[in-house]
Amino acid sequence: MKKIFILTLLIAILNLPASAKTVQNNEKTIEYLNIEWWESFHDNNLTNNLLTVYRNNYDLKNAALKVKENEKLVKMQFANELPFINFSGDLNRDLQAPRQQFGSMQIPKYSQYNYRLPLTMGYEIDIWGTNRLKTKSMKEQLEIVKQAERATYISLTSDFAADYFNLIKADKLLEIQDELVKTQEKIVSMISEKYQAGLCSVNELLAEEKLLTSLKEERNKHKLTKDILEESLKVYLVNYDDNIKRNKYEQINLLTNISQEYNSTIVENRPDFKQEEANIKRIGFDVQIAKREFLPKFTIIGQIGLNAYHLGSLFNSPSQFLNLGILPSMDLFSGGRKAAFFKLKKYQYEEALNSYQKTILEGIKEVNSSVFEYKTAMENYDESVNRLNTQSKIYTLAQQKNKIGASGNLDVLYSKEAYLLTQKEEVSNKINSIISTISIYKATGGINLNNSIDI
Q1: What are the φ/ψ torsions at residue 24 (nearest 5 degrees)?
Q2: Distance, CA of 267 to CA of 269 (rounded, Å)
Q3: Which of 56, 74, 100, 334 could form a disulfide bond with 238, CB atoms 3.0-4.6 angstroms apart?
Q4: Which of 4-13, 109-118, 264-273 has the lowest mean pLDDT?
Q5: In the prediction, which pLDDT does 11 show?
Q6: Is there a contact between 344 and 230 (Cβ–Cβ < 8 Å)?
Q7: Residue 1 host element (H or E)
Q8: Number of other residues whose CB lies within 10 A of the CB of residue 116
Q9: Which pLDDT does position 29 carry in this prediction?
Q10: Are 66 and 148 in contact, with CB atoms under 8 Å apart?
């Protein structure tokens, strides 16, 4: 009974779990998506598409897996701060020749079994805090990866939104271009009739036909742009079966309450800034670790178990053994490796400081550049709206004059064509204004620009 109890106890020890509690967290935070900001465009198709990207996109999935991988690396490093216990059983048979002799006594030939069942325990006493520093370093590496994931969200959603609005732009420009081609075809037909009647030169007809081919060629370019953007968005959505759901141009909302001035501290919200900040802390810990490598290490080593030469006596009291001790260790000579490693980490720390300062400057530059682009885009849009209103009046006046016989149909068609060309500029400038707004969002680190007036 005693033997069975001891054997059961050993088996239970060997099957202990690595940790008393395993925490599983498969919930993916949606914070990085910043859906509240995208809802300010009042476009349900945009927000629904972004939620689909959030669920399906492979780049976002890989970014999340990188975070999970580094979380496990932190746990692996933290395990070095804890004691370890392992079991390594040994069963062997000694076959000895009659050559062992103690003085005048010679041991004859013999053979025997040796049963050894030890539990080996060890713990490195972290006197200098080296292992704790290594864990802190790994945690900062984890923070770097988390910020990389956040950067992926900001970049990918911004790029998707830009392509989405460019697709709406392509739809509208293609629609206007179709109308331009139809209008030009009517003009060519009427000029052809005038030429047949001898009322215009062949050069005038050829010029209108040349313009018609140019308009058709431009229409083909708009079709190509539309097809490419649709395929690009399907890759984001990981959906190749359905058409991209989107609003019409007339339904899009232009944000006009975006701040055009930002404090330089706005860059502190950017993922690259937070990455560089975490990298400085990480390398700072590595410098301290390299410095402590010159100090001695102390490890507690112990064994407890059973050792016998006969299976029948394996679980008896005389077969039990226990040994315990402290093992000090220190490299007396390493060929300058530790000194070189210490200097290497110091150089890396200085390099990280320089990268940190450069990141601040580049962040400020990107924010300022995006604000300048936004200002210019908004000014161009306002000018194009005024120009479109003026051209609309000219077109309306041509139609009114045509009704009373003060002008011909050709004049109306030319006015309509000029109006459509001006409308294309208005469409381009409006979409450019929206995309420049998205650029500010991206440059400022994905903040909700509707709440950034005082930043």
Answers
A1: -110, 130
A2: 5
A3: 56
A4: 4-13
A5: 47
A6: no
A7: none
A8: 17
A9: 60
A10: yes
Least Cα distance to 85 among 120, 118, 33, 113 occurs for 120
Measured CA to CA, the distance from residue 198 to residue 201 in angstroms comes to 7
Tokens representing 331 are 């490299």
pLDDT over 50 at 10, yes or no: no
CATH topology of domain 2-23+34-93+111-451: Outer membrane efflux proteins (OEP) (1.20.1600)
Task: Give the per-residue pLDDT at 8.
Answer: 44
Helix 130-196 to helix 44-56 angle (10° resolution) is 130
The percent of residues in the chain predicted with pLDDT above 90, rounded, is 61
Q: How crowded is the C-beta side of 168, counted as CA atoms within 13 Å? A: 24
**3-state secondary structure at position 408:** coil
**Residue 92, CA distances (Å) to 27, 95, 114, 116 in order:** 51, 10, 5, 9
For strand 90-96 and strand 110-125, is the pairing parallel, antiparallel, or unpaired? antiparallel
Both tokens of residue 392?
């609309």
Taking 60 as the threshold, does the pLDDT of residue 244 lie above it? yes
Report the alpha-carbon distance of residue 142 to residue 149 in Å, rounded: 11
Q: Which of 72-86, 150-164, 189-203, 254-268 has the highest mean pLDDT?
A: 150-164
- pLDDT (tens digit, 9 = 90+) per residue, 302-355? 888 888 877 777 777 778 888 888 888 888 888 889 999 999 999 999 999 999
Residue extents of the structural domains in the chain: 2-23+34-93+111-451
Query: Is 3 a residue whose pLDDT tops 80?
Result: no
As a whole number of angstroms, the distance between CA 401 and CA 412 comes to: 9
- HSE-CB of 161 using CA atoms within 13 angstroms: 35
CA nearest neighbour of 289 among 138, 67, 144: 138
